[in-house]
Amino acid sequence: MKITYFGQSSFLFEIGEHRVLFDPFITPNELAKDIDIDSIKPDYILISHGHQDHVHDAEQIAKSNNSTIVAIHEIATWFGNKGVEKTHPMNIGGKVTLPFGTVKMVTAVHSSSLPDGSNGGVAAGFVVETENKTFYFAGDTALTYDMKLIPEQFDLDFALLPIGDNFTMDIHDALVAADFIQVDKFIGMHYDTFPYIEIDHEEVKEVAQMASKELILMEIGQSINL
């Protein structure tokens, strides 16, 4: 499984022959100015919630590539009304089997509204179960006891957790979350894009190491295999 990072909470997963993009906020992000969104070409776009820093490029990318947007009902409907031809609406607790694996929508504790002020439903995370790996994309969330339900249903290989604080968990809460979901390895996200969420990279890595967790902080444009 190849993972490429585009900044903030935007990642492309290449799962077999399928390309799955999460939370595309790229073109307004000065840190991601070298990323060409025309080169991404996802089959599916999974959106955790409606805030601008998670949906900004979704319409353009979806229309350019005939991608399917997978999101909570209100967000899927909003994109459908904007002319995105392929959407799949979901809600918390539901799951869908797609060509690359099974996607379950799980709780996230966060607000959600769309850029024009429309109702964004509620924020969500995703557990994605593929043939070879199972992972949790937490979206924007506070630490919540609901995370303890995830390992009762899934054996996770890794997770993607926000660590920027202010709007989401910080590294300390993320480490508790990692214990709740029973993973020793997680990719950090939702940090550095804005002054409110700037972090000290060496400090958070040290904190994670002291907790015996492997924290992966990817460079924008970097790809790794997990």
UniProtKB/TrEMBL annotation:
Keywords: Hydrolase
Residues of the Metallo-beta-lactamase domain: 7-190
Pfam entry (one): Lactamase_B_2
Lineage: superkingdom: Bacteria
Keyword flag Hydrolase: yes
The UniProt record lists the keyword Chaperone: no
SMART domains linked: Lactamase_B
MF-aspect GO terms: hydrolase activity
Family of the protein in this entry: Belongs to the UPF0173 family.
PANTHER family: UPF0173 METAL-DEPENDENT HYDROLASE MJ1163 (PTHR43546:SF3), UPF0173 METAL-DEPENDENT HYDROLASE MJ1163-RELATED (PTHR43546)
UniProt name for this protein: UPF0173 metal-dependent hydrolase ACFSKU_12415
